[in-house]
Q: What sequence folds into this?
């Protein structure tokens, strides 16, 4: 798996061992996510504050950092995944002031208003497909309730193409793209 664009374009990222814990996002879908975020954010990705929830290898958040995001908070409940995100960021020599990796339940942290680095301009959600839209809806509602979203923040929600995408209150669906078995919804915060 390689970084698709930006400062670290072409650099290799370590991938998770085994597919039972994480399902890496394909290069094609990551490139689509970067393009969608770039066009949807009022000032583009440059300088944005990003939350990569359910981070896995961290590839989506790292793509945003590579394109000039000012900061990215990475969350994964799996210790191995969180360690992999740290390893990938360290291999790129990304300055520690530009990221924070947390091993923990992003839904619980958001529910308590305890995610540092916000307010976020961009939230990237790639929850396990088997959980459906519920984690994305709960996370976005909690972030909005806690004031952790910038005005006109954008959420990119990856989900199985066969499932309905998340539709939380206070968000408007602006776009949905399908890539085989994967779909990505772009949602805009209306708060």
A:
């Amino acid at each position: 798996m390689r970084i698709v664009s930006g400062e670290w374009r072409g650099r290799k990222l370590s991938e998770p061992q085994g597919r039972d814990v994480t399902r890496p996002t394909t290069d094609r879908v990551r490139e689509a996510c970067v393009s969608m975020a770039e066009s949807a954010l009022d000032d583009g990705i440059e300088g944005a504050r990003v939350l990569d929830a359910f981070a896995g290898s961290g590839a989506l958040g790292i793509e945003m950092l590579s394109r000039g995001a000012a900061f990215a908070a990475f969350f994964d409940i799996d210790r191995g995944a969180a360690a992999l995100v740290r390893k990938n960021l360290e291999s790129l020599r990304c300055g520690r002031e530009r990221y924070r990796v947390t091993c923990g339940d992003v839904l619980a942290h958001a529910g308590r208003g305890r995610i540092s680095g916000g307010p976020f301009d961009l939230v990237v959600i790639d929850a396990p497909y088997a959980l459906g839209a519920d984690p994305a809806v709960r996370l976005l509602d909690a972030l909005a309730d806690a004031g952790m979203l910038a005005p006109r923040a954008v959420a990119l929600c990856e989900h199985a193409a066969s499932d309905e995408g998340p539709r939380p209150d206070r968000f408007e669906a602006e776009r949905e793209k399908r890539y085989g078995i994967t779909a990505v919804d772009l949602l805009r915060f209306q708060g």
In short: Strands lie at 49-53, 71-76, 99-103, 120-125, 149-160, 171-179, 182-189.
